[in-house]
Each structure stands twice: as structure tokens, then as C-alpha cells.
Amino acid sequence: ALVMPRRVTVRSDGRPYWMPLDRASARARARLVAVPKLRPAVFQVVKFKNPAPYPLLAGRAHVFRRGSFVGDVSVKYTAPGEPVEVSLGPDGRFRVERREIGDKDRGPGFLSSTKHIERAFRILVQNNSRSAQTVEVTENIPVSKIEDVEVELGEKTSKGYQLDAHRGFVTWKLRLPAGREKGIDLAYTIHLPEDWKVNIRR
Q1: Full 3-state SS string of 126-177
Q2: Where are the domains of the chain?
Q3: For the segment 67-114, what is each residue's pLDDT rounded down to a tens digit?
Q4: What is the pTM of this model?
């Protein structure tokens, strides 16, 4: 059980009050992460192990960085010693742009009943900081769970990626010199029966 470190007075005015119960610190590993499809920004993310002798309960947590409130994040139930990952919000030193560069549908061939949907995107990341930085950029491709539909990563996809085929995540680690911009391309093709339709979120 948690015990209040000292006696406090709580007003009976029907309002919620926050009371500190404990304090713990841990070493964290920081990363710069971008998911341009969801938001054109680079986020600072930290990962650490729960240093407390008790579990962190699932819920909302307030995040502060250098004394300034960043926002609220969702925290999962985390046992002592288990890893926790928290976003510290967007990093204003970076600019991210994502645009579609390929949109082509090809019908079935002479001896085939399969059509092909081709999509391609370009992601640009600009490092406006004064030092070189490494940014993890994650995109995703559709994932098929049926044999009649096949998703193929295109040859125009920039090299150096890691593919999580189960979830469809494609991740690059971009090393960006100070003041420089780099781009990566993602291309994929969906092969499916001619009379089928799919909704693709761009």
C-alpha cells in the first residue's frame, strides 16, 4: 500500500486534488521518431524501465520536459522493471513533408484476372538543428490476411529499411547532418481479383 509522506489538508469543495505519493527516477533512452502518415512532425520519445517497486496503473499521465508541461499520454499497466515508452511531444527543430508521387491502377492482362493498384510516396525530413541527428521514420503498407490479395513492396522503395511484415511497418533510420534535408520513397503494389475493391488510406 502507498502511504502519504506527510499529512495534507484536502478541501471539501468537490474538486479533484493531486497529492504526491512517491518519487522515483530512471535512466532513459531517447529517440527521434516520425510517422508522417499520421502527422508531419518528428517526436522525441523516451524509453525506460519502471523504477518503482510497485506497478504503474493504466491511465493518463502528465508529461513535463524541463519543467514545462508537454501534454497527457496514455500509460499501460506496467509491472516493476518493465519498459515504458513516453512521447515528449514534437521537436520543432525538424520539418517533415509527405506527398504522393505515384497513383496508378492497372487492369488484368490478357491471360489474367488480377488487377494491380500501385501507390508511391515521398517523405522529406529537414534537420534544422545545429548538430547531426538520427531520425526513425516509419511508414506502413497494407497487410493482407487472405490468399486472394497480395501486397508487394515496390522496387522504388528507398533501401536501408526494416520491414515488419506482420504489421506492415516499414522503418528507416535517417542520419541527417545539421541543416540538411533527406528524402525516402515508399512504393507498393496490391494485387487482387479484378472485381474486388479496396479502400486505401493515403
Answers
A1: EECCCCCEEEEEEEECCCCCCCCCEEEECCCCCCCCEEECCCCEEEEEEEEC
A2: 29-90, 96-193
A3: 888 889 999 999 999 999 999 999 999 999 999 999 888 887 766 788
A4: 0.82
